Amino acid sequence: MLKLTTIFLGLTLGSLTILDLPAQATSTQQNAASTKAPVTTIAQLSKKFQGKPVVVEIYASWCPACKNVAPTVSQLKKQYAGKANFLVFDVSDQGSTARSRNAAQQAGLSQFFSQNISQTGLVAIIDPATGNVLAQHRNNPDKSDYTSVLDAAIR
């Protein structure tokens, strides 16, 4: 039986208010050959996520980009149920942010969380075997940009 793993996480922005997020942020993609360091230690991430790619979303209820990518993420959750892990770091308010920070630490994603806390509307795919970000997009509802990376990571 395949099981979809979805974890909702919260992040704390404190008194910081982000008002200057671009409405039409461009997407960016990073590949495994990137020179960036892994977002976590390999042992922490791969053990917790059983070798399945991890799709991480930075979400806030007030974020237009988050609403734009929500249908795509929902479709991905259905399509990759049991094949990928899905995490949502909720930064909507201080309480959800604090819960997300704690959950990110437990998941071995503290560094990723810290680096991306202000990047609402971001969806990243992380390789649990290496801890590397395979793809990272912001405000990108194009499902094929995610499926191509997920399909390659699952093989």
Radius of gyration: 14 Å
Count of distinct strands: 5
- CATH T-level fold name: Glutaredoxin
What's the story with the biggest beta sheet?
A: 5 strands, mixed
Number of helices: 5
Compute the number of structural domains.
1
Secondary structure class reads alpha/beta
Q: What string gives the helices and strands in order?
A: EHEHEHHEEH
Q: What is the CATH architecture annotation?
A: 3-Layer(aba) Sandwich
Walk me through what this model shows.
This protein is α/β, with parallel strands linked by helices and 155 residues long. It has a single domain (31-154), classed as 3-Layer(aba) Sandwich (Glutaredoxin). The chain contains five helices and five strands; from the N terminus they run E-H-E-H-E-H-H-E-E-H. It has a five-stranded mixed sheet with strand order 1-3-2-4-5. Helix 2 (64-79) links the parallel strand 2 (54-59) and strand 3. Helix 3 packs antiparallel against helix 4.
Blueprint of the fold:
Blueprint: E1 5-10, H1 42-49, E2 54-59, H2 64-79, E3 85-90, H3 94-107, H4 110-116, E4 122-126, E5 133-138, H5 143-154
Parallel strand pairs: 1-3, 2-3
Antiparallel strand pairs: 2-4, 4-5
Summarize the structure.
The protein is of the alpha/beta class.
Sum up the structure in keywords.
globular, 37% helix, 155 residues, alpha/beta, 5 strands, disordered N terminus, single chain, Glutaredoxin
